[in-house]
Write the structure tokens for this entry.
Amino acid sequence: MKKAPRTAMKLVGSAAVAALLLTGCSSSPGGTTAKETTSQDQIDKALTTPTKLTFWTWVPGIEKEVALFEKKYPAIDVTVENVGQGLPHYQKIRTALQSKDGAPDVVQMEYQYLPSFTVTNSLLDLSAYGAKGVAGDYVDWVWNQVSTDKGVWAYPQDVGPMGNLYRSDILTKAGVTSAPKTYEEYATAAKKVKDATGSTISNLATNDPAQVVGLLWQAGVKPFGYDGDKTVSINVNSPEAKKVLGYWQDLIQKDLVSTDADFNDQFYQGLAGGKYAGWLTAAWAPIFLQGTVADTAGKWTAAPMPQWDATKNVSGNWGGSADAVLSTTKNPIAAEELAKFINHDQESTTMLATQQSLFPAAKNVLGSPTFTDAKSDFFGGQTVNKLFADISNTVDKKFEWLPFTDYAYSQFNEIVGTSIGEKKDLSTALDTWQDVLVKYAKDQGFTVK
Amino acid sequence: MATSSLPAAKPAGATRVRRASASKRRQTTAAYLFVLPFFVVFATMLVIPLGYAGYLSVFKSQLIGGLSFIGLDNYLRAFTDPEFLGGIGRMVIFLLVQVPIMLGIALGLALALDSGRAHGSKALRLLYFVPYAVPGVVATLMWGYLYGPDFGPISQLFRAVGLDAPNLLDSQSILGSTMNIVTWEFVGYNMIILYAALRSIPAELYEAAAIDGASQYRIAWSIKIPAIRPAIMLTVIFSIIGTFQLFNEPSLLDAIAPTAITNGFTPNYYAYNIAFVNQDVNYAAAVAFLLGALIAIISYVVQLGTQRSERKQRKAAR
């Protein structure tokens, strides 16, 4: 019996050694950037060679578009996997990349996360496969989201240009008969709505940095910047940003805007029960509302965003995603073609818009009358698609992200979101957020401009 | 004793030893074979990951600049990290408030069931145990709905009788709300452990106590509770470990109470956020190690304390 502990120790010892050995060889970043352009012959060859691809996406029903691709290229067999949406999705990609095994070829990725993956050289530069040739087929600001001067990192799938969706029945009760054109009018309308009906004119979520960033985007604020290498710029507490949040702080403190966390039961009930008379939201919201608060059909109206400057007509973006190819893929050409096909082929993009209800980034849908002329009963017969297609053209063209969006957004929730919820001073919150982000960036070895 | 029998006994003894050692060796081999599967799993699932985490915790990894060895800096950083310390502090409050309440209720219920006075005790036993059978995730989602400040039943009840509904999901009350969920979940579990221990007390003791004229309360206080002390200790240790490992509840409540649940609400949740949101796996490993050490220390101290008091009691009894 005396031997047992020693054997156990040996086991432990050898295990520890094994652990060290295992980990010793796992820290070189994988990255391949093909510089020379691939020829058509190579592409044809790759698409006729039997190949297996894996595609990680959360878009429900995207198998249909993938089936179109497989029908066109029978040699390619695509496995679609849903590994979660949001943070879990990105975590799993990172884990797979780090373990050097099991990473998919094509991944769904939101625009704000692309730099977080290019910084680690994890995305394939698609410009080597002729991606630049299709740049003109997408709305220009969207193309700016997926491309930098260093390359093209994804094909845009859907977007969320922001607009104002409101309950015309509630607003009419308060004597507001048309959508507020400016933020000044919006604040006045908010007061009327609150006094007459008790509803708030919109909800500013405490847990949704994307909404606030979309509002900043509309105001022409450039809070983030990344040169694709080692330099980031962080300006979340600029005077312009403080002006925007100061405006909302005022409405929040007067109880004219609610501050509920969004996309949970409480929020859905608020939408259904008329707690919110409107919502400054994005192009995906009409379909979302149709599904979530079907009982309120016919009572909604869609309008462009209120403006800071009455002479202008600008918007921001909230949401949407693209399809990127991981640099670890063994079949870069086939993977790239899959990402392109889904988001470029007319039949596929139309299907994405009509069946998956994604608001398109591709001009071949945005410009098609069957899409823009569709009347929505939920919005009292309004051509909502047309409205948002027009809004999409007014989105500020250049908007960059940080290469550590997870952290930036999580800290937004901790600092700014909490201050929104507790009706505190948002200017101070922005200052704190700025400090935290700068510290983190420096900690991670970035140069902060 | 009998020295004359020694020479005769010697050869017999020698063969016996030899035979015994042969069979003993076989037994030892068999024993090792039996524990081998455990050790393989133990090593691959626990020791290696632990070693790997320890290895990670002495490095620093940057998005720009890569990996560098920094010794114990991550540990030192944790000792001055207000979020980590805040999480620990919160868990200490949790431990001091929630655990006594939960175990008190569990003990009370176990005693009540054991006294045999409650009608339908079998059905009640099951009923108390049901919350434990509900997965923690479901329980939290359910309570999250009950707590809802606008449409939650609790708020509606308050409003129905004309009172201001308390916001059970704001930063002041979230700890209490979490305690309530955890208590609801684990009272039944602890009750079953204590109840099983109560059932194993010999009935003669009760008879003797009854002859001495002891009341039910007296029996509970002087016989039952001392007799199940080890079981109580077990539930205490489990609760300490469970408290410091709280994760599901804050992580799910975060969706409905994002302003109240901070990234460092519980140390475990903090380690998760550091690793997967801040992408600082190295610091997360250090935090996890410190947390593990803390749990071990507290559990040990508690156990030591009770052992000492037990010894004292035994001495007093003598």
User: Anything to note?
Assistant: Residues 3-24 of chain A form the longest helix (22 residues). The first strand of chain A starts at residue 51 and ends at 56.
